[in-house]
Design a protein that fits this description.
With 635 residues, this protein is of the alpha+beta class. It contains 16 helices and 25 strands. The strands form six sheets. The chain has a seven-stranded mixed beta sheet, sandwiched between helices. Strands 9-17-16-15-10-24 form a six-stranded mixed beta sheet. A hairpin with a 2-residue loop joins strand 21 and strand 22. The protein is globular, with a radius of gyration of 27 Å.
Amino acid sequence: MQFAGGSLSIPMRWDEMRKMGATAREMLCRAAASQWNVPRDELITADSLVRHGPSGKSAHYKDLVAVASLIAVPDEADVRLKAPADYRLLGKRISNASAEGIATGKPIFGIDAKVDGMVYASLVKCPSIGGVAKSANLEAVRALPGVIDAFILDGTPGPYNFDIRESHTIQSGVAIVGKDTWSTFKAREALKVDWDLSAASQDDSDVIEAEALAALAAGKVEAEIERTGDVEAAFANAAMTADATYSTDFVSHAQLEPQGVLVSAATSAVEVWTSSQTPVFITSNLAKLLDVTPANITVHQLRGGGGFGRRLSNEYIFEAALISRRVGAPVKLQWKREDDMAFDYFRAPTYYRLQGAVAADGQLVGWKNLVAAASADGENANYGASYRPYDFPGKVIPNVAVEQSFVKSQTPTGAWRAPISNVYAFAEQSFIAELAHKAGQDHRDFLLNAIGDKGWIKEGDMASLNTARARATIEAVTKAAGWGRKLPEGHGLGLAFFLSHSGHIAEVAEVSVDGKNITVHDVWVAADVGQVVNLSGLENQLQGSVVDGLSTMAAQSISIKNGAVVQSNYDSYPLLRMPQSPRVHVDVLNSGYRPTGAGEPALPPLAPAVCNAVFNACGERIRALPISKAGFTIV
């Protein structure tokens, strides 16, 4: 299965890639042994060479390939994997083979794909998500310079269902085909469409938020997600309790490279050039859409200019394929930035009312979480809008209740870097800091006591909390940041820990606050993701997660009015700039466990670490993201 998502690439391929490499090494050694007529056991490998110590003979791998290819593949039992002590490359910094091409602007991305005879296309969809094109001034558009054709592309009415595995449907729109991208984009300005809005979304994000917060304030419960212990007794007997509501807005993926694809589908031999995160699902769904056999579809996988979950869905490929079949030529379909923002599947808005109970001995003994989840059908939460039962608090704190109510929303939501964790961690870890403050305890000590020492909650499950690994990251990051040191006036340190996508990550942020201006000076990251494969790549992922998390929490928010997205480009949906970025210090812990992914787990702790630091700097608690809603600005 070829896909990239869920921070799974490393853990999914670890065993098989090691076995493949070890098998190839064994075959090369056997080839050398047969050529030199020496015992296999006397051969060693290093620096791409097979060496025979007694005779001094050596041969480069490339010179042994022809003979090795004729040798039977050895049984798995006869192949020896390296012990960690023998690793020479794993855990070291290895440069990205594409680094020079990326830095110098080489045409290696999906947006750069070209073939002879291709035409260009742009697809205009209804601003109110799910609307259907009834008619348009097609003749006038066709007469414009550089335009080859314009036509209505039929699609499924209603907000798009982003079923990345099975769906091959598209949304209705008007396709404009031209001689170049500029001509198609320019022609959009003259296009006039009569939209049928009967099945379109009517969402208003302000209404969704108001209804959600009202449901939480009223304690409205429609479903129970998790319950352990005697929650009511824990709260009744507590020495101290706290109650706070946290919320986050819709956000877009906003990847730098908008969706785009080149598809040749004029005949039964179909070719696709794209930067999808799920090429495994392109072939099966495109075969159904075009009524061709999967064997007749070739997918050329190209580098993507950012994904963060957005490129898991291939609907833009299906759009291009239908346009290509209609015009009988290869089609380069290019979304505008405005298309990318208007027809994303967004990170869902979230609303959590958290309550905690602390016993007389200072221990966290009770936890309540009431979720108001956006829901299209009133019975199931939209993707990412709810909560998943985490080991903490559910299997650590003795008395836990997680309940849920629903608020109506038809706006499509989907996977966004560290789904659910990316929003719930903000609420949970900020509230832990609130509890510690109210209980008069040091935040680090309170957090360590709350996590406890139960060990590996589910032995053998890499996604399960290991309290020893959690504690090690918290202790390492607070030591690195100088937790407890005297700070200048207006400065604060903030701490957060979260287990996401099998990565145990703790972070400390140092900020200074001047009025409503926040400077994030430094962020320390302590990460335990098991065996490191490429230290350079790992550091890049951890540092990038910090910057992405800060960018998102600062001022990014998607507003919905009459079912349409209000923001359209980076002027209204700002990305973090270089001068706003903090110094990021990474400490990688070598715990000896199997490797897990690093693309997502360092993002969730960032927002609570920064917000906790802001509170310690100025005394104002931030409970809603982005922080711009409270008037704060990252400078």
